[in-house]
């Protein structure tokens, strides 16, 4: 905005870490069971998330 008085600082390290987390969530949402939360218990849901992250990190 042209009328902004103080420009916020840009931290490239924080931006890189935030981008990494956002891409991880995007990969999680590709799996239908995780995106719609089919599991009823938190334990099973967490196990599904761990499984998906292991598979996606193994593939890519």
TrEMBL record:
Upper taxonomic lineage: Bacteria, Pseudomonadati, Pseudomonadota, Alphaproteobacteria, Acetobacterales
Biological process per Gene Ontology, one example term: DNA transposition
Keyword Protein transport found: no
Listed InterPro entries: Transposase_11 (IPR002559)
Transmembrane segments: 41-59
Coiled coil: none
Residue stretches making up the Transposase IS4-like domain: 13-54
Identification of the protein by name: Transposase IS4-like domain-containing protein
Nucleotide-binding found in the keyword field: no
GO MF annotations, alphabetized: DNA binding; transposase activity
Keywords: Membrane, Transmembrane, Transmembrane helix
